[in-house]
Specification:
By secondary structure, the protein is of the alpha/beta class. The protein contains ten helices and 14 strands. A hairpin with a 5-residue loop joins β1 and β2.
């Protein structure tokens, strides 16, 4: 297995395993490229051709054109006629969108120990739906449906005189179930221009985290809910389907708008356990004013903007919504802002680079949903 790097700075792994077909080898690279290009098929193929020229990924028996034809035949892409009728565009199919989420989940969370996942019981006993094998003597008021019939009959046999069978309340035992904590999560993703500044692509890892978290929750915890929003000058919800196409824009960072929308989403959820995950790399620099205008200040930390952020943190705290901030920045003054923001909310903060971001969010999600929040 050898690594190679494209001119655009992306790093891939070139598999030499004999069991992989030419299509499978190219498809691994394609999944990375199509995520990086936000679903732009033509741009992804252009990069794939450049990589092919530099690293000889194909030969005369299987070309990039053969790969494109296979993508179409296997249902990974589709052709859509343009509205003006002049030609067609190549788009990803829902099958590929799902596959990209699965790929992100495996790529980001796959290396975690299996024991760290899957256990999401609280320590609160009650009428849950998880049988943990614990029995206790029956007490008046215990739900009849929780009586462990087999064990109760065994007790009656042991306690009854020889040749008789008497079942009393003293023989009854009930199954203790642990309530499963259902979680409602909002993931906030910063799409301000700083997410691609200084030659560092921060939006692609954030996008992968969102896809992986979405796949994790929908497959492993279907009773949990995940809402995703992006925030730049404004905040807007996005669907899971839109994640592969997520892009940054020429925006400032309106953290307040993102928090307002996140809390509005969570107010509508029935789950008692609620939380906000916020991925950002920049300072709050924008407010949407009542008259529709924007108040912007990119120089330092503007007290007017910062104070509104602290106010939102306190409001979330009153609603028993903890906020976990993943700050992809190392500036001391930004860290000070996040520390104070976290203090106001009594939430948590992680100061991280891009490496390990997904694992940190996964572990925090698992930890949070094992306890009753608030």
């Amino acid at each position: 297995m050898s690594q190679f790097r494209a001119a655009n700075g992306l790093v891939f792994t070139q598999h030499q395993a004999k069991h992989q077909t030419p299509f499978e080898r190219l498809f691994e690279i394609f999944k990375e490229l199509i995520t990086h290009t936000s679903g732009d098929f033509d741009e992804a193929i252009d990069w794939l051709r450049e990589l092919d020229q530099e690293y000889q990924l194909t030969d005369e028996n299987y070309t990039i054109d053969d790969f494109i034809e296979d993508l179409l035949q296997k249902g990974y892409i589709r052709q859509e006629i343009r509205p003006d009728g002049q030609g067609s565009d190549t788009l990803l199919s829902p099958k590929t969108e799902k596959l990209l989420r699965q790929h992100a989940l495996k790529q980001i969370f796959g290396k975690l120990k299996r024991s760290s996942a899957g256990n999401h019981n609280t320590q609160i006993t009650g009428a849950g739906d998880a049988d943990n094998g614990d029995l206790k003597p029956y007490q008046f008021g215990d739900p009849i449906e929780q009586i462990a019939l087999t064990e109760s009959l065994k007790n009656a046999q042991l306690h009854s005189p020889l040749g008789e069978f008497n079942l009393t309340t003293d023989d009854l035992v009930v199954q203790q179930n642990h309530q499963k904590a259902q979680m409602s999560t909002v993931l906030m993703i910063d799409i301000s221009h700083s997410m691609i500044l200084y030659g560092e692509d921060r939006i692609t890892p954030a996008k992968k985290v969102a896809m992986a978290l979405a796949e994790l929750i929908t497959t492993r915890y279907p009773k949990d809910t995940l809402d995703i929003l992006t925030f730049g000058n404004d905040a807007q919800p996005i669907s899971i389907k839109e994640l592969p196409y997520l892009q940054v824009g020429p925006y400032h960072t309106n953290t307040v708008a993102g928090l307002e929308l996140a809390m509005d989403m969570l107010r509508r959820k029935k789950n008692a356990n609620k939380q906000i995950f916020m991925i950002t790399d920049g300072k709050p620099s924008c407010l949407h004013m009542p008259d529709g205008s924007y108040y912007k200040n990119s120089v330092g930390l503007d007290p007017r903007i910062v104070d509104r952020c602290y106010l939102m943190a306190r409001q979330a705290r009153k609603l028993k919504i903890p906020i976990t901030t993943f700050m992809i920045a190392s500036d001391p003054y930004l860290q000070h802002f996040v520390q104070e923001f976290t203090k106001q909310n009594q939430g948590k903060a992680f100061y991280t680079g891009l490496n390990g971001l997904g694992e940190m969010i996964f572990e925090d999600y698992e930890k949070n949903r094992k306890k009753r929040l608030g």
